[in-house]
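Many introductory courses stop at the sequence. We go one step further.
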Amino acid sequence: MRYKFPVHVLTESKLTLRGLDLLKEIDKNAILSANLKSELKSGVIISFSISTLDKKLAEILQLRAPALRERSENMEKNSEESFLTGACYIPVLPFLSDTEEQLELMKTQAAAPIHIFWMALIRSLLAGYSKSCCDFQ
C-alpha cells in the first residue's frame, strides 16, 4: 500500500477470494502510468495457471491444484470485482498438452471472462505445428 504499485498475481489457488479486501485496496490506490491506465484500467491483474484441460492428466500433474471448474469460478468472481483476469496455459507440455487440438480447445475455453490469455510453447516450431495455432487475435 505504501508505494502504490499495481500487482499481478499468478496462481492456481482460490485464495485470491480470501484477499479480496486487500486486492480492492491495492486496486483503488495503485498508480498506473498514463499509457497503462488507458490500456489496463485496473491496478490488479489475477491470472490462473492451467497446464491441461484433460482431467485425468491434470490429476497426475496437478495433485493439489483446484479443479479447472473451481479456477474458472474463481476467475468469474475476480472479474466481477472489476479486476483484470487472465488464463496462463503454462507449462504447455511437449507431447502431453501441446497438440493443435488441445491448443484450439484452450483458446475456446478461455474466452470469457478472460481479459488476458497467454501460453508458453516449448516446441511450437516443430513439424506439424502451424503458426496459426498460436494466433489468438
